[in-house]
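Hi,

I'm pasting everything inline rather than attaching a file, because the server keeps stripping attachments. The sequence lines come first, and each chain or strand is labelled.
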Amino acid sequence: MSGLKRTPLADLHARLGGKMVPFAGWEMPVQYADGVLKEHLHTRAAAGLFDVSHMGQLRLTGADRVEALERLMPVNVAELKPGRQRYGLLTNAVGGILDDLMFANMGDWIFLVVNAARADHDIPHIAAETKVEVLDRALIALQGPAAEEALAALNGDVRDMRFMDARVMPLIEGDCFITRSGYTGEDGFEISVPRDEAEAVAEALLEQEGVAPVGLGARDSLRLEAGLCLYGNDIDEGTTPVEAGLTWAIQKRRREEGGYPGADVIGPQLATGAARQRVGLRPTGRAPLRAGTPLHAEENGPEIGRITSGGFGPTVGGPISMGYVPSEFSQAGTGLFASLRGRFEPVTVAPLPFVQQSYKR
Amino acid sequence: MKFTEEHEWLKVDGDEVIVGITEHAQSQLGDLVFVELPEPGTKVEKDDEIVVIESVKAASDIMAPLDGEITAVNDKIVETPSLVNEDPMEEGWFFRMSLNDPSELDGLMDEDAYKAFVG
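And the predicted assembly:
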């Protein structure tokens, strides 16, 4: 796998038996010896440790950082309190989504995490508006009901954190940037660690009760069960936040004031709805229905939409999918068909998430 | 027992062969969550895609190893796809088939050749 970037935890993955695959220009563990199914279920039952160091970590320190981000996102950046994190969306002039990201008000700077596959796009895009420093650090996600106890063994102050809190604290010696968040639907933390401490922090966490290494395979099935979008699959430059069901990320002041890219498209959609909508889908049969599968209102009828993410949900115990359909077909309980290998498989529009989230609010 | 380059095994049983996938194949595929088998009585030609198996991550096809007719299928693996992971060479068999030309078995790999093939 020459030419691929390696994270600060690459040697640890090798020792843990991680099966490495190319992912967005990085060599990443897709699974360990237990396999995707067990790693998924372990995360929901105890705690999974994920290496997400491939994601882009940015530090914004410019005095204009708040105004700059509000020029790029339909999100309320100005009123985010110090020590708090929020989900954000970079939009384009036609209301499409350039990337989704997490940003945290760290007091005199903003910590911003973007998708690995979009980092090369996002960095100049944001740097055109304000000063951007790319952080060369590890990023570890610790997710699941045992995450708090495990992380508290290294620094008990994390017990005081609530969902979407962001703090700076040492776990070994250097400052870690810790947020109580993640992308699995579970309670947990994302931990930005100085590069030279990454392996020691990861190993210290793996020594705690209930913590096991989990690969990107299970991360994908966990986020799918949690109804969370994968950039490039469920959202992209051709989908708007309203179509994607992400209107909760656009706070009242920004809706009223506008002043973000694509406001003249997104604004009217916020008022009257979009013509199509992201929905959850439960196949009636056992076959997983994956990304790209066409959707139909009736057997042998025309295609009305497509599945954008899909597979087997280990916690659900059956196949689950997400996709886009015209809004008149988006009500939970609506019966549709997916064309799979020449057959029309019945599917039902289902509420998202598929698995109840368990954030510590 | 004979093996194909597509990681299937064939065990001769009277006039028929029993077909499944190898331990190597199941370990590469990962946890199976779905198996779709052909109808008994289906006439097949070598390399026809006759079985669909899906792991947590992806779908794969299993092809007919030789020309012939499906005579029976293992419904147990439809109910419990993980049987293929747990016992691929016995309980996790896929189907039985009769062969149009049993001498074609001679063209397949034996166990030593298959071991060398997967390295």
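Residues 275-360 of chain A form a domain with the Elongation Factor Tu (Ef-tu); domain 3 fold (CATH 2.40.30.110).

If the labels don't parse on your end, tell me and I'll reformat.
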